[in-house]
Amino acid sequence: MADLPGIASFWIGPRLRWIDKLSLASFAALGHPVTLFHAGEGPAPAVPTGADLVRAEEIWPEIGASIAGLPPAPLSDVFRLHLMHRSEMIWVDTDVIALRPLRPSGGYLIGRQEGDWVNGAVMRLPPTSPALRMLRAAFDDPAAVFPWLESAQQEEIRRIVPERRQAETARLVGNAFGPLAQTYAMKQTGEIDHALPQEALNPIPWWLGDLYFDPRGTLDHWVTENTLCLHLYASRLRPFFKRRRPPKGSPLARMARRIGFDDFR
User: Fold this and answer.
1) Which domain of life does this protein belong to (predicted)?
2) Least crowded by CB within 10 Å, which of 12, 51, 192, 249?
3) Cα torsion for 108, 38, 16, 23, to the nearest 10°?
């Protein structure tokens, strides 16, 4: 399956969690070339077999100036825009588990989540995408007041000195750089029609994350023949689940066993 497109993720820090390593390994096991772009000072994280490690500056040379101003999550949201503009790789968050190979259709691969939001955990827009252009322009302007925020939020951001607006937006509005922005832009441009239904990329809502760790559990009610991957919403999982090996017989344990993954440190 050498013709599969490349998969790319982003990381800051010296160590991946087992969930992140399992995510990368799941795409490599299907035959996707996998690249983890890393940023920040200090040692780079170790990656699973089949994944390459590359400095984020290869895609976004100016990222160093943004690291100090944005937390990791919105920084990752901005990085994926540069990735899609400057490469042909598919963006994937490190809490996405591959079930089937990913292939964009007409240059697009993006899906809806519960509530009909566009979720960017798996994301590919063509470099010519109007939505991609809109988002890059907004995030390139440190003084921007994002039009997808509520009116009261916009007024609050306007009262902040221009050079601090992006950092304060990230602090005040959790998804301002992610689903809120992506949904707004794709609706404005009409590209929302390219978004796949929830079952394709984000089939299980975040509030049902316990299902992945249930030794007697099954995902059969959620996973269909059209499901390409599972988005774990790692930031919403119970902390004790992320600190230990998934229980024997649980859906995640079965997935790991199927691809020969056993690095749960």
Assistant:
1) Bacteria
2) 249
3) 20
Angstrom distance (rounded) from CA 251 to CA 121: 20
CA–centroid distance for 130 within its chain: 20
What residue type is assigned to position 229 of the chain?
A: C
Residue 204 vs residues 78, 119, 220, 247, 250: alpha-carbon distances, Å? 25, 13, 11, 19, 15
What are 148-198's pLDDT values in tens digits?
999 999 999 999 999 899 999 999 998 999 999 999 999 999 999 999 999
Both tokens of 258, joined, read 């199927």
pLDDT (tens digit per residue) in 78-93? 999 999 999 999 999 9
Residues 6+ apart with CB under 8 A from 180: 117, 146, 148, 149, 173
Model confidence, pTM: 0.96
Q: How far apart are CA 151 and CA 23, in angstroms?
A: 38
Amino acid letter, 53: L
Q: Residue with structure tokens 């089939």?
A: 203
| Amino acid at the residue 70 | L
Q: How far apart are CA 163 and CA 144, in angstroms?
A: 9
Does residue 130 contact residue 105 with C-beta atoms inside 8 Å?
no
List of E strands, the chain: 7-12, 34-39, 51-55, 90-92, 96-98, 109-113, 117-124, 229-231
- CB contact at 8 A, 183 and 210: no
Torsion of CA 251, 199, 226, 213, to 10 degrees: 0
Looking up tokens 């007697």 gives: 216
